[in-house]
Design brief:
Elements lengths: L6 H16 L6 H8 L3 H7 L3 H19 L10 H17 L1 H5 L1 H7 L1 H27 L7 H25 L8 H14 L9 H11 L8
Amino acid sequence: MPPPLKTRERIIQASLELFNAQGERSVSTNHIAAHLGISPGNLYYHFRNKQAIIAELFAQYEAHVDGFLRRPQGRALTMEDKTFYLEALLAAMWHYRFLHRDLEHLLDSDVQLAERYRLFAQRCLQGAQGIYQGFVEAGILLMSPAQIEALALNSWIIMTSWVRFLSTAGGHVSDLSEEMLRRGIYQVLALEDGFVKPSARPVVEELQRKLFVPLVQMF
């Protein structure tokens, strides 16, 4: 049986759950404390304000994405890697969906977080370009350097705006589902369609079928 979580870890876990379910702007530190059955003073002992909790959650998200958004060392990329990257991105988007939904507000509210996010975005774009280059070298995609750069940027725009799109076009944050986010991953894969080499197309099309969610199921 695992040991019980420490208070600081419980605050982080509860905050993530509440932010995801209700939206960050709807949740105060008093709400978090009440949810945990602790006093506000106990919460402030561990985190001086809500921004500090958000910064900790972003640090977790940042480390998680940095951990997988990179090319493997010493081997060529495969179609299994493409599935891995897409599924890992889906899991990260779902687990930290409040960050994607409330991103502009969060960055406007915290100058330090905004700078950290800017550097994080640069790393992600560099990592994505490296991965796309790996798929070119593996004979899965056929692209020029300029097309790689454009595809990485377009993919980033979709990934970082998809939750907000769903929240504004599809309903309340509490209505979001993992299936709805899966369609966003499909949109990223669809961007590559014109660059897929014929030999890789059957596997790519199978992956597209796996990720596709009809819009009628989302709205």
